[in-house]
Every structure is written in C-alpha cells, then in structure tokens.
Amino acid sequence: MAVIRVLFVCTFRGGRGKIAEMIGDLLSNGNVEFYSSGFEAGPLKGLCSEMMEANGFDFPTDPLKTVFDRRIDNEKFDYLITICDELTFENCSVLLQGITNLYADSVQLAHWSVPDFVSLSGSVAEKMDGAQNIKDLITEYVSNFLNEIGPYEIKR
User: Fold this and answer.
1) Closest by alpha carbon to 29, among 142, 154, 156?
2) Mean of the pLDDT values across residues 22-43?
3) The domain that contains 40 carries what CATH number?
4) How distant is the alpha carbon of residue 78 from its chain centre?
5) Percent of the chain at pLDDT exceeding 70
6) Which residues lie below 8 Å from residue 136, measured CB to CB, with a gap of 6+?
C-alpha cells in the first residue's frame, strides 16, 4: 500500500504548517508522510517555536522549503492543506488562490482556519496561552483529518 503524502502550507514562513507536520508524525503510525511549507522563506522563530519547545518538541528553526520550490521540484502529494486565518490580516484569499493555481489539478485540497501567532497580544503568559490554544486547535484538526482519511490507529 502506498504511503499517503500530505503537505501543509500556510502564509508567511510556515510555522503552523510545521506544527501540523510534527503533530501528524506523532499521531500517525507511519501510514502518512507529512510535510510543511510556507509562502516565504525564512527561519521559524518566536512564539510557535517557544511553545513547541515548552511542549517537549525539538522544533527546528531552519527555513522550510517554500511551496513554490516544492512545485518546481515536482513533488507529489495526495492532500494539500492550507492554513491561515480569514479573520485577520493574513490575506487568505491570496494563499488559497495561489495554491489553487499551483495544485488544483494534482491534489485534493482542504483548508483549515487557524490564527497566526503574530496575532496574539497581551502579557507573555497570555501569549503563551494563546499559542497553546493554536497548537491544540491544530492537533484537533490533524486528528480529525487522520480519522477521515482512513482506518489508521491514531496515537493519543
């Protein structure tokens, strides 16, 4: 049986996508390969990396391969899931249209609305709570996705 390949793409550098990739790797049993990209190149840093490190993950800060580079390299995926927040300044419509133009003919597309870490405000503790809520939302989405695509035993 072929392994299912999933690419998470979010605006900016791909921090939420990387979190989804890491959570997917944790919850699945090797039946799914997860990858992540952003629209921009650049290091992953800030609240997303701090929160993941606080949760025991070895969160890489190296730049992710952009979604454009993956397309140029002709990488193939079964699913492509966009992650952005329609309620903020992220301009989801540009991300969604760009992904549709690049991949609609070759992959099953889905979208998850997840707030960006840069939208969090308040004290350091309040921002970390908000970051944890974002991670928890991504975990819920990944778990639901795994349940939808197949009868895989999901680690809890």
Assistant:
1) 154
2) 89
3) 3.40.50.2300
4) 15
5) 94
6) none
Domain count, the chain: 1
* Torsion angle in degrees (nearest 10) through CA of 71, 93, 63, 23: -90
- In-domain check, residue 20: yes
Judged against a pLDDT cut of 70, whether residue 90 lies above it is answered with: no
Residue count of the chain, please give it.
156
Share of the chain above pLDDT 90, in %: 50
Q: Which of 143, 148, 26, 130 is nearest to 85 (CA)?
A: 130
String of b and e for 46-55 (b: at least 16 CB within 10 Å)? bbbbbbbeee
Answer whether residue 69 is part of any domain: yes
Structural domain including 105 reads 4-149
Is 156 contained in some domain? no
Q: pLDDT grade, residue 156 (50/70/90)?
A: very low
34 within some domain? yes
